[in-house]
Amino acid sequence: AFPTALGIEEIQEILPHRYPFLFVDRVVELVPGVGVVGIKHLSANDSFIVGHFPQRPVMPAVLIIEAMAQVGAVAVLHPKVGGVRDTLLLTGVEDFKFKRGVFVGDTLVMRIHITTLRKSSLLGMVRCRGEAYVGDQLVCKGQISVALSFKEE
């Protein structure tokens, strides 16, 4: 069992994503602006499972990256970092290596560390390194870059 630092309602207060494109169920560790650990439980009810692939349902690699970006965004867009999101755009994915699939019934644990967080009054740039696991098995790791704009609270 994982402790809950943020539940789904609190996550939805921070992220603009909603079902079927919200890929974070819980945040279990959070240091705003520094790092975060989030969880996605892969269910047979997830919308992408029906067609990818019916004979062996697996989470698409690109959606694993999206889930990791969303987890990182929780640490970046948290109110303690200062500012409310207006626009958040993925700008880069680098050095991703995949070691195993994520299947129905798996719990994907994503660990994200913010390596760069630059903010001006309106714009920001974020780089983070992340790793994703199922149990103690590494699923993937790599670097994600994001551009964001802020509006003053």
From TrEMBL:
Pfam families: FabA. Keywords: Cytoplasm, Lyase. GO terms for molecular function: lyase activity. It is found in: Cytoplasm. The keyword Cytoplasm applies. InterPro entries: FabA_FabZ, HotDog_dom_sf. One of its GO terms (cellular component) is cytoplasm. This is 3-hydroxyacyl-[acyl-carrier-protein] dehydratase FabZ. It comes from Genlisea aurea.
